[in-house]
Design a protein that fits this description.
heterodimer, A: mainly alpha, 2 strands, B: Rossmann fold
């Protein structure tokens, strides 16, 4: 959509103001985009590293769990884990990364004892699996926080980039063209006026001479 | 209501119960989607979902990507990782930067 305007001085100064606002906004947005990308990269590196570690540790816990299932019978495993431990909690607050709200989780482990079942009748492998998993929990929570932050930042970067491009390639050029057209038109009027005056003066002179 | 929930096949998530998580046995994508919706309404903060279920319930998961809570995080299932989670990270990088520069 082209910027609509009337070829007047008022309109031109209004457009000039808009242009300077757009230019400033464009610069700010661009800075925001660059900084968000920089932070995003550190977050995403951390995300990748955490995920790799979680995957490795999880596989280990699962191996112990499989061993436990082999050592005990299925029903006994189910029974041991039937009663859930006291709920683990997460404290939540929100942080800000360049005006993007991101979650901050703090892990509050389950308040119950180390193992939520009696040691009688359960295999040592099960204890091992449960302990490994519990050790994994803080990492999992951190992973959740970092991964969510990455998701939100990626969204924000995309939005900011669109805004920067809209300003740079649509808004600013349109305003510049509009201002240029108006100044051309005003100049043309000026010249027209001048010519008319000169012509009139000439005509008056000729009349006097006659 | 626990703050942290875990959804997946029984073998993968049973251990979560010992760590004090709310555990749900669900492997069907549509049912898992409904479950996630319900948990989100009940203010669960973090939902860990095993990768196969995560992939199956993609439509629901995508709804919550841009809101701060709940955080829906894929975890490897008992049978190992399928690479869905890594793929997600990669997708994020591509979306933000336009090219895959980390992998």
């Amino acid at each position: 959509m082209a910027v609509s305007f009337k070829p007047t001085r008022m309109e031109m100064s209004r457009l000039k103001k808009r242009l300077s606002t757009a230019t400033r906004g464009h610069k700010l947005m661009k800075d925001k985009r660059d900084e968000t990308v920089r932070r995003f990269i550190t977050f995403v590196r951390r995300n990748k590293e955490l995920r790799e570690r979680v995957e490795a540790l999880m596989a280990e816990a699962m191996r112990s769990f499989v061993a436990a299932k082999a050592a005990m019978n299925r029903a006994a495993v189910d029974e041991a884990l039937l009663v859930p431990a006291a709920s683990a909690k997460v404290g939540i607050s929100s942080g800000k990364v360049l005006s993007t709200e991101v979650p901050v989780f703090t892990y509050i482990p389950s308040a119950s004892a180390d193992l939520p079942y009696g040691v009688f009748g359960t295999a040592a492998e099960l204890d091992d699996a449960v302990r490994k998993f519990s050790e994994l929990m803080p990492l999992l929570i951190e992973l959740a926080e970092v991964e969510k932050t990455c998701n939100l930042l990626a969204d924000e970067i995309e939005k900011t980039r669109r805004r920067v491009n809209a300003l740079e390639y649509v808004m600013i050029p349109q305003l510049q063209t509009a201002i240029h057209t108006i100044s051309m038109k005003l100049d043309e009027n000026e010249r027209g006026n001048l010519t008319r005056l000169m012509k009139t003066k000439d005509m008056l002179k000729q009349k006097e001479e006659q | 209501m626990a703050d942290i929930a875990m959804i997946g096949d029984k073998d993968s998530v049973l251990l979560g119960r010992a760590a004090g998580l709310d555990v749900y046995f669900e492997t069907d994508g549509a049912a898992a989607g409904k479950l996630i919706d319900r948990l989100a309404r009940e203010n669960t903060r973090i939902i860990f979902v095993t990768e196969p279920v995560f992939a199956a319930a993609k439509a629901t998961v995508d709804k919550y990507v841009s809101s701060a809570f709940p955080a829906i995080i894929p975890i490897p299932s008992g049978s190992g990782t399928t690479g869905v989670a890594m793929e997600n990270i990669r997708a994020n990088v591509e979306k933000a930067i336009g090219a895959d520069i980390l992998f």
